[in-house]
Amino acid sequence: MLLSLVKPVLATKTYEKIKVFGPNVDEWQPALLEIIDEHDLPPRYGGTKDPELTAEDAEEVEEAAEALFEGSDDDDDFHEAKEDLDTLD
After folding, report:
1. Are residues 55 and 86 in contact, defined by beta-carbon separation less than 8 angstroms?
2. Rounded mean pLDDT of the chain?
3. Per-residue pLDDT reduced to its tens digit, 67-78
4. Which residues, at least 6 apart from 48, have a Cβ–Cβ distance to it below 8 Å?
């Protein structure tokens, strides 16, 4: 196992923080939800976050893109990115 190869170079304190889980969801899912909020995880990992980009997310990305490209000489890149976002609506 890979962990046994790196164990000699890890500090004991660091090694003790590492947890290795198998494929059994009943083992790893509770541990994952202890460190990551349910609303930040997609359903396949036991969370409730919608994996799709929402209109609100797209609006935030568009605003960020506008701010990024404001005053840019390369308006074509901005318009291309905006068209990509518009297709998400």
Report:
1. no
2. 79
3. 766 655 555 666
4. 38, 39, 41
CA–CA distance, 21 with 67 (Å, rounded to integer): 43
Q: Are 39 and 49 in contact (CB under 8 A)?
A: yes
Q: Given this model, what pLDDT does residue 57 score?
A: 73
Domain boundaries, the chain: 55-86
Cα–Cα distance measured from residue 52 to residue 43, given in angstroms and rounded to the nearest whole number: 11
CA distance 76 to 10: 49
- Identify the CA nearest to 79 among candidates 67, 89, 69: 69
For the whole prediction, is pTM greater than 0.70? no
